[in-house]
Amino acid sequence: MLLDVRDLHVEFRTREGVARAVNGVSYAVDEGETLAVLGESGSGKSVTAQAVMGILDVPPGRITGGRVLFRGRDLLTLKDEERRRVRGAEMAMIFQDALSALNPVLTVGDQLGEMFVVHRGMSKKDARARAVELMVRVGIPAAAQRVRDYPHQFSGGMRQRIMIAMALALQPALIIADEPTTALDVTVQAQIMDLLAELQREYRMGLVLITHDLGVVADVADRIAVMYAGRIVESAPVHDLYKAPAHPYTRGLLDSIPRLDRKGRELSAIKGLPPNLMDIPPGCAFHPRCPMARDVCLTDVPPLYEVSGDRGSACHFWRECLHGRS
Amino acid sequence: MAGHEPILEVSGLVKYYPLTRGVLFRKQIGAVRAVDGVDFTLVRGETLGIVGESGCGKSTLARLLVTLERPTSGAIRYKGEDITRLSGRALKAVRRNIQMVFQDPYTSLNPRMTVGDIIGEPYEIHPEVALRGDRRRRVQELLDVVGLNPEYINRYPHQFSGGQRQRIGIARALALRPEIVVADEPVSALDVSVQAQVVNLMARLQGEFGLSYVFIAHDLSVVRHISDRVGVMYLGRIVEIGRDTEIYDHPTHPYTQALLSAVPVPDPEARERRERIILSGDVPSPAHIPSGCRFRTRCWKARERCALEVPPLAVPERFRAQGGPAAHDSACHFAEERRVVPPEEATPGHPPGQPPVPGGEPHEEPA
User: Fold this and answer.
1) Between the CA of residue A248 and those of A233, A255, A286, B364, what are the distances in Å?
2) pTM summary value
3) How many CB atoms lie within 10 A of CB A116?
4) Is the Cβ–Cβ distance between A98 and A160 less than 8 Å?
5) What is the pLDDT of residue A168?
6) Taking all residues of chain A, what is their mean pLDDT, rounded to a whole number?
7) Which of A70, A94, A309, B113 has a CB 3.0–4.6 Å from the CB of B117, allowing a cystine?
8) CB contact under 8 A, A219 and B349
9) pLDDT tens digits along B299-315
10) Where is the ABC transporter domain (chain A) (predicted)?
11) CATH number 3.50.50.60 is the correct assignment for the domain at B6-227
12) Does A236 lie at the interface with B, CB-CB under 8 angstroms?
């Protein structure tokens, strides 16, 4: 297994109290596989990724438990120096907002080239040549000229391509993409997702795609992990999950999105609001919003039950949910 | 449901923002053509959806419709009267009837005002709508109508979640009992599960208050859900407009087709059945709009004629005689019908065209 996250716990200490952002997340990604981590804001999907990448803000953040096994090594036990070598060379991250992720006072050529200078010890000239190659590879027109441009001189889609080029530079085995297309227009979104999928196939990378968009997931993912209040509530191959969700939250999400290919009367909304992370409801965190909740849900935290060999659901009543009774 | 009486008629609407150079002697060196000739009619009681990508001019259009901006040229007729020429008392009267819901519920509400003051503020400007002593009761009614607890009247915006704030924005828009509500990306800042609550709320209020909506958004699925008719904007113009199935199931303009084909559909089975049109390049700058058809620089069908002649927004000749759903307004010289959204296949548990479980939208507790 390329990346194996086990029982990860992350909390944030703030003046108002302790926010438990990640409460025992486990997931795994293999080479060439795309795992989508789906969740709404505050579900802990990005915090998990930051902990995996080692870019969590500490403090206020703190990893309070769990392991992050990358090719069998626990990243959480590495020294900063070693961690830095892994990051960038073996695993890389793509962010939502390329404009704030790129350095505004360096040309894109310098930023791309820096990867080769720092990690590969290349000369500036060779690094520049590699930067141009990368820009060509991610489809930036007139790369040889544009390598001297600054990030603000590119359009949103082109900037996201540069970010992909940067993540790809050292041919990492794993890429974590945090909402990579959310800030882009649909037509550009499609271009970027296609590029990512193509590069992933070419280099057989593992891809963790963090998103809130059920459409994007359906388009590219092999497996999906649905997060709610810092836990994975359902994990399944993507086809199974869309066909028959085994958790009422997943079902609620699928039912609440308007469809392009369907004109509905009324959307079936999930009632209420996502929980406050400083005050997560006891028992199943979803119970105040759940149409299926019973007494046991108020007291017992549901474990991730095995639905089938490669499916899990953290719902006491997953059988009923799976078979459509509620 | 929609009748036939037009409540708003927009014709030849244009808004240019001058580009100037120089400090002492400002010289105009060009113009950003944000809205560049828009025509449409809004019928009483209907929802007209406007979709387009960033920079297409849809937000400028919204600001023109609610008279926050004056157009460079063109007319907006509200019940037959051109409101772009009005001023003073007459303008104020019109503004009361055309209200707006903004995109960002975090920045469009004053953090120092209580919810009661925010929703009641329109009454300060239009005191004839509600007597001073009656206002508090009115505001509480409005809170109830949008699904918030009327007791929250003294709370501040930061005590509410994004979805609840958008409800407050909607309540404010309804305070003066307008006839038209222009909503500019009202749900795009919200989480998926909350988005559905607000969409349902807007649909319910439309019936309750007899509202006509102009619903502006970039999300084609949300727009389809709520709209009776849909207009597709590109670089300041509507390139295709028609009833919901005409646009989504029988699009004839290549831009609409590309846009629809790019939308991810939440159905992994559709991955193989779908046809993707990937457009090359980026949208040109509205300061340098291509000659002829403005979409031609990204269009795979473009020919010489497209650079020379601006295609009018009308029913293309080839569809005029045959009628049917392809016969709707489309500004393309080479309009062709092409279905890009695969027809839905029936899946167990989800019969097509019918949402699974009717959802309620109950009162919410504050975050």
Assistant:
1) 9, 10, 9, 20
2) 0.84
3) 21
4) yes
5) 86
6) 89
7) B113
8) no
9) 999 999 999 999 999 99
10) 5-254
11) no
12) no
